[in-house]
Amino acid sequence: MTIAASAPAPVSFGRRLKRFMSDNPLIPLLLLLVILVVALHFLRPGIINARWVASTLQFAIPLALLAGCQTMTMLTGGIDMSVGTVASVSAFVLGSQAALVDPSLAILLALAPAVLVGLVNGIGVGIFRVHPLIMTLGTGLIAFGGLQVYQRTVIATGFEVPGWLEWLGTGLTFGLPNSLFAFIPIAALIIFTLRYTGFGRLLYAIGDNEKAARLSGVQYWKTILALYLSSSLLAGFAGFIYLGLIKTASLTLVDPQLLPAVAAAVIGGTSIFGGRGGYVGTIVGALILRVITTMLTLMQIPEGARLIIFGAIVLFVTAAYLRIIEDR
Amino acid sequence: MIAFVRRNSWVIGLFVLFAALLVFTKIIQPSYGASDFGSLVRAVLPYAFAVAAQAIVVIAGGIDLSVASMMAVTSVTAAVLMNGASEEFALVVIPLVLLLGFCLGAVNGILIVVTRVPDIVVTLAMLFVFQGLALLILASPGGGAALWLKAMMVGTIAIPGVPDWITVWIPNALVILIVAVALVWTPLKRSRLGLSIYAIGSNELAAFRSGVPVARTKILAYALAGLFAAMGGITLTMSTGIGAPIPGPYLLASVAAVVLGGVVLGGGRGGLIGPIVAVVVLRLLRADLTLLSVDPNATAIIEGTIMVVVVMLGAFLAMRAASK
Q1: pLDDT of B63-86, one tens digit each?
Q2: ipTM greater than 0.85, yes or no?
Q3: Which residues of B240-268 are buried (b: 16+ CB within 10 A; e: fewer)?
Q4: CB 3.0 to 4.6 Å from B75: which of A157, A185, B233, B242, for a disulfide?
Q5: Nearest to B118 among A133, A263, A272 (CB)
């Protein structure tokens, strides 16, 4: 009789590390972020200072907000491709109305199209069961057309970025961007909703197994309607902040941010098939993307090579991350 | 006959819609003639190839967000290679660029199979990579195209024995489209590979258990999409005479037309004819709106609304059929 048989085989360090990482998927992401910042420091010593941190945050916040829309919709197995246009529409309407009416009315007017697009998305996806990708592409196209028509009617009235929005987008308080103080409560609300409220649980349930969720009494269309509505509203708000940051009148102001936002959510560990992920990872993902962008800009390589490296990094990080968090 | 109609009801519906739109166009613009039709087909050509590329991938159960970028890469490559070269050299360039497209697509497929990252994410990342590649090959619009290639795009085909009044309605561009698609698609659909593509799109696990080589089929499906994208890129260079490194609006159009053409997102159903007819219908509609002197800015609204309404209707009908 030996006693060796009853003793558990020693688990290798690599195995334990992998298990630890897969239990805490945020750790590898944060590690990557730190490594990137350190690399940036060696690349250009002295660049990491308070001003750099503030500007990185300023640009990461609208991206993280748009990525929030993607995170929430992806949790149910959907995607929202209309957020780029919705954010541009809200920003443009706000900028053009700010000169005419008082701020609160301008905000309401600017959010109205966002609500409308969100409602149509929700009805299409929730009630008619249209594929979210095609539905949101379609409504995005409609919203863009609407914006073009709108632009022709207001072109004479001018465009101005209200002072308070500029303050929100570019101003600093105690060395931190003002938009951060708007972002923290929103992010906290999203994280709280996803983790601790019934609505958040429903989103995970639908994404994990839609049929099981419906059989358990989830009112699918109501949940989806609320989801796409909040996604659109969040996009509208992201548009405001982006307008305050960039301060330009453009019909496609936020559109180029759409695909990076999807990438941020994916890098952050949200599964595009639904049921897995969270907003904290997405925020880290948005920060990682911003740091990579700064890095590539600093290296002064041609834009083509920059795009190639950006795409390769997105793919590599996602693949590596999937390997870490999933036991295959 | 009835079975044929029933099976292809969606595509036949699209053809009827197309015919109705042509009649409508003739009514609102009595001078609409063969030359207008020719320019419509020329404008449609790159869209049609983008749609064909997207359709194959969607049938195989995936999605390719990098279609427009692949077109940009192949278009600039063709334009750079042909710039200043002899007319005969274009004969070498065309197969070379087609091969390039095939390889670009295969890279997509291999990455999807190897990394096991979802299709949509891989092709999203490759969208950036290909866009960068196109910019590296050609920083600003330029390059050139062989004269005979440019000439091929315009004019109509002359078929001996067929009267002129028929041949004026068969522009060269239409012949290029039909020949190119038929050369790839007809043998493919009847082959084992074609069946495998439908099989993995319809149920990947079942296909795997039935002995379908899932990984190889998926890679080939993406490679074929790359091949069609290369055709689209070449036609872009042919019709403009230059290569432009910035991807055109082909991604959105291709996804929309694929769905309108009766290919189900999720895979396993549909063909190439429906999506291609759908994209022609969408382009003709746009031309009609211009003829009706609708505010060009409102065109996007109308196009988007049609897309959403048709897709909603299709989904609604599918739901009714399923609940019966």
Answers
A1: 898 999 999 999 999 988 888 777
A2: no
A3: bbbbbbebbebbbbbbbbbbbbbbbbebb
A4: B233
A5: A272
